[in-house]
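Today's session is about reading a structure prediction critically. Students often jump straight to the picture, but the first step is always the sequence itself: look for stretches that repeat, for charged clusters, for runs of hydrophobic residues. Only then move on to the predicted structure, which in these notes is written as discrete structure tokens rather than atom positions. Here is the chain we will use throughout the hour.
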Amino acid sequence: MSAAHPAPLFDGRPLTDPVDPRAVGAFNAELRSRGSTGLQASSIIALAVIAIVTVIAIPIVVSTAISILNSPGSSGFAGLVLLVFLGIGVAVAAAAVVSWRRSRVTRYRLDAFARANGMSYEARVSDPRLPGMVFGLGHSRVATDLVRGDRPRFVEFGNFQYTTGSGKNATTHRWGYVAVKLDVPLPNIVLDAKGNNGFGSNLPAAFQREQRLSLEGDFDRYFTLYCPTGYEQDALYLFTPDIMARFIDNAAELDVEIVDDWLFLYTQRRVTTLDPANWAWLFGTVGALLTKFEQWARWRDDRLLAERSTAAATGSGSTASPAASGPLPFAAPAGMLAPPPGVAHEGRRLKRSGRWLPLVLAVGFMIFWIWSRSV
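Below is the predicted structure for this chain, in token form.
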């Protein structure tokens, strides 16, 4: 029996301890020098506009309001309106400054929290190269407030957003995620958590129904499991009763994706925050799952042998010359020939399907609108 990994160290004090403003300023200056402040171009432009308004526009409005109020026959109402607009402008500028300062402190605290727990912090990564289902969608993809560790294996906590559409039709989608590096590539498996669904699945992708697999016990009450067709027995090998219990007890509110040699946990809330209770939950969830991944490292895809034998027989992917096509000078002992780590082509990605519910609702609305206009 392999020894269980110790529970991850957790020290949440840097998330709430008082901070030194000078240290906060120095840290954010270092981030700016590295080009990793976490501020997007739109945020920088907004701050610049607020600064211009504060320095130029507000004095003009104040002087205009005073001149109107002091002029003979002036309308007190007009001056009052100007003062109200002035107050709104000051309030907006003050809120922007408070938000900017808060984001600076947040980055400083998360960096201190990461270092206190033997991890590292990165403020912003554009278009992260991760294979999960959410990372290839839309445009303007960016991950922020990344907290990473590599003991006993690589784990990354982060917030991610992408945009679909453009102009007035643009929509920003936000996700929190945990990415865990696995020992070997595994079949593409998705666990759609039922506890975080609303009117249908909240996942950004839909999968063909024939890829659903029902597991024993209460697992189906908490998750809908999708695995590639033909990989049902492999999914049963990976999701043994003890592993299913870990997911139910610790990750029932999180969507799960296994793809290549990664495991992703998804939520539509922010993952990296200043809430110690949230971090305690995340650390406990990851720690509970890590102790079961050693079994997954032993999984092998027998289809790889047939796939490579077929490729060799047809000559695809082979550079051997005819003179080298004779019997090999060595042979594997009987029963010892095993496929290398990897997944055959048909198991690497689930087959997607279209989302019918929005189309049905749209058609239903059109029918109702046409009917209501005709009566």
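Discussion point for the tutorial: The longest strand covers residues 171-193.
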